[in-house]
Amino acid sequence: MIDQPQALASPGVHEKVLQLVSRLSVRTVLDAPVGHGALTAQLLERGKIVTAGDIDIEKFHLNPDQPNLHLVQLNLIAPQLPLPDNGFDLAICLEGIEHLENQWQLVRNLHRVLKPGGYLMLSTPNIINFKSRIRFFVEARYEFFKRPMVLGKSIEHDLNTYHIAPISYFELQFILESCGLSIKELHANIYSSRNILSVILRPLFRAFYRYKCYRDKKRNRGDFAELYETIMSDELYYGETLIVMAQKKG
């Protein structure tokens, strides 16, 4: 049994990802950013060959010399990762994209190292759930991005580790598909926004999106009905952390 390091991801994220992994026929896995190695430990127990990468490998708590594990220092937005093309069946990037200044480069890097037909599992705070929409209306800040980042005023913890790049499903889908990845499934860790007010207002949101679809089609601006229906799914409307499973084309 491998000692289990502390998980840095939100509650339920690792459990959901491992459920998804169990359904796939994958052997070689990239886990980056790896953090303390909590997910890597679980993957090794399941017989996967894991490359664990992070910009700060000093915080990695597993023995890096054990079989089927390769620890490597990675800057995920570097022009070229020190990893082979088409080298992995699965790349896992949990709660990392919101910490990076170049989200496009991250996805390009992950796409390059995946085998054709390989999978990407990516998670990020869901900034378009009901709770976040209300917070933005009141505070002009997203949920999970509650405190402004101000040099000379923000605490050191926030400046060094806080979320700097909120990304909604709209942008995430566009980046993934533009980089050659097709979204297959959406999941959430927990449904924290499910309350009386959100349930009451949900039909109003749906009616508003139907009107937007009607207006866009009337003006020949495209048909976004499928996207808007996805936005109103339980995972995006109620979910706290968004977990996307995408597949490399080819």
Commentary on this structure:
There is one protein chain. With 250 residues, the chain is an alpha/beta fold. It has a single domain (13-248), classed as Rossmann fold (3-Layer(aba) Sandwich), CATH 3.40.50. Helices cover 36% and strands 20% of the residues. A seven-stranded mixed beta sheet has the order 3-2-1-4-5-7-6, sandwiched between helices. The protein is globular. It starts with 12 loop residues before the first helix and ends with a strand. The relative contact order is 0.15. The model has no long low-confidence stretch (mean pLDDT 93).
Helix content class: 25-40%
- In CATH, what is the class? Alpha Beta
N- and C-termini, Cα separation: 37 Å
Low-confidence segments, given as residue ranges, are none
Supply the number of structural domains: 1
Strand arrangement, major sheet: 3-2-1-4-5-7-6
CATH topology: Rossmann fold
Largest sheet: 7 strands, mixed
Q: What's the total number of strands?
A: 7
Report the mean per-residue pLDDT as an integer: 93
By DSSP (H or I, 4+ residues per run), the number of helices equals 9
**Beta-sheet strand percentage?**
15-25%
The CATH architecture classification is: 3-Layer(aba) Sandwich
- Overall, the morphology is globular
In quaternary terms, these chains amount to: single chain
Rounded to an integer in angstroms, the radius of gyration calculated over CA atoms is: 19 Å
Structural class: alpha/beta
- CATH superfamily grouping: Vaccinia Virus protein VP39
Strand-and-helix sequence, N→C? HEHEEEHEHHHEHHHE
